[in-house]
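Q: My collaborator sent me two sequences in one message, no labels, and asked for predicted structures for both. Can we handle them in order? The first one she listed is below.
A: Yes, handling them in the order given. First sequence, followed by its structure tokens:
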Amino acid sequence: MTPEVVVEVFKNALYVIILIVAAAIIPGLIVGLLVAVFQAATSINEQTLSFLPRLLVTLATLMFLANWIFSTLISFANELYLSIPELIG
């Protein structure tokens, strides 16, 4: 196994991780920004006000995207498994 192959596998793994994490985190970040703007406009300084909406949106996003997340992970695992002969030889 050459260093180039290891780097390629690592690059693909990082791409899949970043893609899945970004899909789960970005909606929560947007809701957090909207709540922060609302808090700044109304002078409400409650810390827990921004936590609950972000949590609910992140959980809803994970539930909504669960099928896509698992299919992406399974696809990556299948590609990795099918490339074992190429990686070893």
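Q: And the one she listed second?
A: Here it is, processed independently of the first:
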Amino acid sequence: MSQIKRLDASLANHLDRRKSRGTLRSLTLASPGMADFSSNAYLSLSAQPSVRVEYLARLQAAAALEASPAAHLSPPLLGSGGSRLLDGNSAAAEALEQTLAAFHNAPAALLFNSAMDANVGLFSCVPQPDDAIVYDELVHASIHDGMRLSRAGRKIPFAHNTVWIGSDGETAPRAADRRDGEPRPLEAILAGLLNGPGGHLFRSGDRSVFVAVEGVYSMDGDAAPLKEVTACVQRWLPLGNGFVIVDEAHSVGVFGDRGRGLVCELGLEDQVCARVLGFGKAMGCSGGLILCSEVTRSYLINYARTLIYTTAMAFPSLLSIQVSYEFVINGGAEPLVRHLRDLVNKTYHLLLAVCERQNPPAHLLRVSSVEPKSPIIPVFTDHPRSLASHCQRKGFMVRPIVAPTVHRGTERIRLCLHAANTAGEVIGIVAAIEDWLVARMDEARRIDTLKQNAVSKSKI
């Protein structure tokens, strides 16, 4: 067997195991004309005529300048020529960073090719040896990848969106009553760091604790309790060696005045040391950004490998970010945000009505009892592939979300609402979900009846 065939055979075994568990991934294409309840383009900016026209006009103007005798004054349209530390930097990139830093009330900003690159670069190089990273158990994979490369001595998860010990109003459970490995509240983790081995380094301020959360969590759609997180960090690390980092990929554009994000909405700019933005969601383009201090920006330029060793974004990408942000900054997205919020509210209450009418068992269908704060509404079911396929056949694009993307037992389809969706589409997809639910419940009742009949006959 050749080396390549031997490798393929080994990899095929891994794929077969994943397939047997029902978790095999594959690339698919959405059929044309399907109503989009899947993508992260919450504001539907790419479908806005004014945004499209402005982007194409500026791109054509840049192309005309490139073909003119003044070509040396224009950036290259195809490619950037290298990393930003070599030949890929541009006046357009630096001007865009200054604009975005000012808009988001931050001292400085640094562009990355994606939010994934931004998180990996930030978490891999900023925490120092003997520092600790404490992170919400549901943070994005990119933060985990950054932590794997980090020199931080400890990386500890805390229970999702749980800040204080006994925050539910009940007496905090004793350690002996907690399941092995179950994440604890943020406060308990910080207390353990300060009072455990090497805790004097954190109490004296000689070592730092970085606390990683997301503004909005992409699978559940819930927002982080940022005020509580920052208050807890300040309480337990009063010397200022606790640093909160917020991934705002799913909250920028949707939260805050003119889409500035959740940190700005809550007025916490001075209590968060870094924010990671992603432009591939509500902003309708691509790329990532870190909002931080000038010193942190300089440090990242020197140490963040995902910036240093990658080709910089080309001019068309920078232009798309600029045009989208101008639309948002000038208030063009405000009607879209209002319409989006109305759709989210309508969808959620229609789903609640389905649950009330049908009273399904929890394993078949359930939705959260907490009203959504974001455009993401998870619909939990033990049969996400079946439900997603049914909705797709009805003309609605939704995707099944299964382990390992989410914890086993929390499988779901995820409804992502967009400003371009209509009330009719919302009614249609909820009706499709109810049709599937009724069919599954009828099937379960038929099976139960057959079993009961079989038992009755056996007793005759």
